[in-house]
Amino acid sequence: MAASIVLGMSSSRCSRRGLFFLPISLAFTSSVLLFLYVYYTSKLYVHPPEFSKINPQAPVRVGKSQQMDNQISQEVGSISENDDAFHDRSLFMAKYKEMNRSLKIYAYPYKKDDPFANVMLPVDSEPKGNYASESYFKKSLFESHFITNDPSEAELFYLPFSIASLRHDKRVGVGGIQEFIREYILNISQSYPFWNRTGGADHFYVACHSVGRSAMEKAVQVKLNAIQVVCSSSYFLPGYVSHKDASIPQIWPRKAEPPTRLPYQRKKLAFYAGAMNSKVREFLVKTWENDSKISVHKSRLHTPYSEGLLGSKFCINAKGFEVNTARIGDALYYGCVPVVLADHYDLPYADILKWDSFSVVVSTWDIPFLKKILQEISENEYLKLQRKVMSVREHFQWHDLPVDYDAFHMVMFELWLRRSHVRTLRG
Ligand SMILES: *[C@@H]1O[C@H](CO)[C@@H](O)[C@H](O)[C@H]1NC(C)=O
Ligand SMILES: *[C@@H]1O[C@H](CO)[C@@H](O)[C@H](O)[C@H]1NC(C)=O
Ligand SMILES: *[C@@H]1O[C@H](CO)[C@@H](O)[C@H](O)[C@H]1NC(C)=O
Ligand SMILES: *[C@@H]1O[C@H](CO)[C@@H](O)[C@H](O)[C@H]1NC(C)=O
């Protein structure tokens, strides 16, 4: 319709009015088209809550390699592709074996009497607290068969500095981290040939504290080329480059066998407790503070935290300062289905695991619809989600001595997927 107006105008020869209306009608037509485009593509106009709720019964990606499926299916047993927490379990199993066999990593060496040994070497003590994942990774790596002393057989090079230790080191501190990293990269690039060969593309570091995000500001090559394995993996923020970088889960360390609580024994619909350090959390608590089904707390609980997680069907991970918190790990440990309320979170192992099979990822815009979204999940669907929670738990667990498929090995697999994008002929 709009097009015929334009044609009509332009074909009505030598009319002054035509000349006058032509630009106006062109402008009008473009506006209509633009409006239609925005209308049909923008969430601002069309935003039913169902859109952001990930449907656990959505069709599942079909496995890629039929041949590999047949080959591996015996080991995998009866788990069908459609009912699995993995995008493609058989492919993962095959690739995992290959990774486990072939991946070699060279860690820049430091002696115990090096002035920065505390930052470069794994700690002897038990990793503790919120940022334990960083410590656990380093300890596990140094004890593993992935480490090689021969850099010529290494596919990846580990930058062993600990952001968490640098923060607490009086000689460096939060304010000195950027300068320290700049000098560190300069040092290794002068003392060894490896950095210059690839501009750092086959190098990686691991950090769980969010100050790691700005730590590379004076070492741009690290930010742009190296593989950053971090807890605060938000693809909305400039320090993190999804696909190149990888997400490591933030896990509060727990030793004991996790307690079990059956789904029907979980009386509350959803649970959240935590400090009010973000708009998302404030909005969440303000919206649901008096609800009888959704239990939200902005201060210390009088009852044990574990009871909250064990007594609820769903447990909410609401973004704080960062997209990541230890709450997803907490929820999984206690067999509670995580609700992820953290926009732009590049979720850990997202290229291995299907997060929509064991969690509910909700846009923060949908906080007012949270109850409806969760109540619409049928009992059957819930049982499926909860069963997957139990099956993925092992991937979110650290060990003093790493075991296959635990958090350490999953991160190794993520690294392996990102290896060798740059090949060199030299060296
Ligand atoms: C991985 O490698 C270790 C050390 O060689 C071995 O003990 C383990 O069985 C391997 N795991 C798998 C799944 O191949
Ligand atoms: C860099 O090397 C110098 C000289 O060896 C050393 O004093 C300094 O501590 C090193 N700095 C870093 C950050 O590794
Ligand atoms: C690597 O490149 C830097 C900057 O160009 C240079 O200063 C350094 O000497 C080089 N390292 C080696 C080992 O050649
Ligand atoms: C919850 O209850 C308190 C106290 O009665 C009230 O001040 C608050 O506005 C209520 N919040 C909501 C969201 O209804």
TrEMBL record:
Keywords: Glycosyltransferase, Golgi apparatus, Membrane, Signal-anchor, Transferase, Transmembrane, Transmembrane helix. It is found in: Golgi apparatus membrane. The keyword Glycosyltransferase applies. InterPro entries: Exostosin (IPR004263), Exostosin_GT47 (IPR040911). It is a single-pass type II membrane protein. The keyword GTP-binding does not apply. One of its GO terms (molecular function) is xylogalacturonan beta-1,3-xylosyltransferase activity. Its main location: Golgi. One of its GO terms (cellular component) is Golgi membrane. The chain crosses the membrane at residues 20-40. It comes from the Eukaryota. Residues 100-377 form the Exostosin GT47 domain. Its EC number is 2.4.2.41. It is an enzyme of class 2 (transferase). Belongs to the glycosyltransferase 47 family. PANTHER family: EXOSTOSIN GT47 DOMAIN-CONTAINING PROTEIN, EXOSTOSIN HEPARAN SULFATE GLYCOSYLTRANSFERASE -RELATED. This is Acetylglucosaminyltransferase EXT1/exostosin 1. It comes from Handroanthus impetiginosus. The lineage of its organism: Eukaryota, Viridiplantae, Streptophyta, Embryophyta, Tracheophyta.
